Amino acid sequence: MAVISFDPRFNLQVGKHNNQHGGVFEEIEGLIRVYIDGHVERPPIVSIVPCTMSLERGVTAKDVVIDKCTGLWARMYFPSCLGKLPLVVFFHGGGFCIGSAAWSCYNEFLSNLASKANCVIISLNYRLAPENRLPAAYEDGLNTLMWVKQQGLSGSRENKWWLKHCNLSSVYLAGDSAGANIAYNVANRLGTSGTSESTIIRPLCLKGMILIQPFFGGEGRTWSEKHIDQPPNSALTLSISDTYWRLSLPSGANRDHPWCNPLANGADKLRDLRLPTAMVCISEMDILKDRNLEFCNALSSVGKRVETVMHKGVGHSFQILHNSPLSQPRINEMMSQIKTFINE
């Protein structure tokens, strides 16, 4: 697979670009550079692959357009299994600012997940910040659910090839890192819309959330954010995290905005949310470990159903980075746990 590189040698060329766009406003070295005039550059740190490349045996994938106006599209994976399968709507990671449903690492991970967990997966290529700050990604998630609903109700001939594989009464929102944040906030929006989510997205039935290392933050620092040592090329450091939030939150917002910090107003605020059962996957060596544990404890304290899974000895995004000798056995564990969760 093509492993994500955070080597500074991939840094974009400076000089004429600085002059042309008025200087650099924000930068995460090797990942993204934002200029004062709003111009954004993202180096090609991961190869973009077609939907036919490097798929798990027995898995078929196709790309579908969801909204031509916003450029929203998704990559769909379905295994060669008999009968109707659970539908997983997946959001990739990348701090809301980088990443693609066509990245080779997600193509590999999700085709593997579709095969191992026996599910159909829609991997969404949502709009990125800072060109499209939050809540754009959340809106893309909701629009995708409504699109699936419309396809199901219309009995679309065009999309019959995947609809026939889906059990629309068994839908899960999933994602890793920023994608897990999107999955949670999409579910949150469904649960605070003034009516039951089953009414809004019927015939779809949202059965659960699969949140892999959910990307949350806050103005106050947790112990793991301050003290867990990260390797030089780690996928997520505290500095990188802070920059992603500055680029993705609405202008003027800080890290205690509820989209970043769901506990900013106290755990009691979660009590009235109509949230589905959650499975939260936490990495032991991740700076987000303590924040993820606090989130799980808060959900549990107000009576929400949450299953907490700790992956020992690995860090943030190990499931796509393969950056530890323990990555592959932990990925196998994760696949097995997700399969159990969506088939309970």
TrEMBL record:
**Molecular functions per Gene Ontology:** hydrolase activity
User: Where is each Alpha/beta hydrolase fold-3 domain found?
Assistant: 88-319
Q: Where is the active site?
A: S177
Question: Would you say which domain of life the source belongs to?
Answer: Eukaryota
Matches recorded under InterPro entries: AB_hydrolase_3 (IPR013094), AB_hydrolase_fold (IPR029058), Carboxylest/Gibb_receptor (IPR050466), Lipase_GDXG_put_SER_AS (IPR033140)
Q: Which family does it belong to?
A: Belongs to the 'GDXG' lipolytic enzyme family.
Kindly provide the name given to this protein in its UniProt entry.
Alpha/beta hydrolase fold-3 domain-containing protein
- Report the source organism: Carpinus fangiana
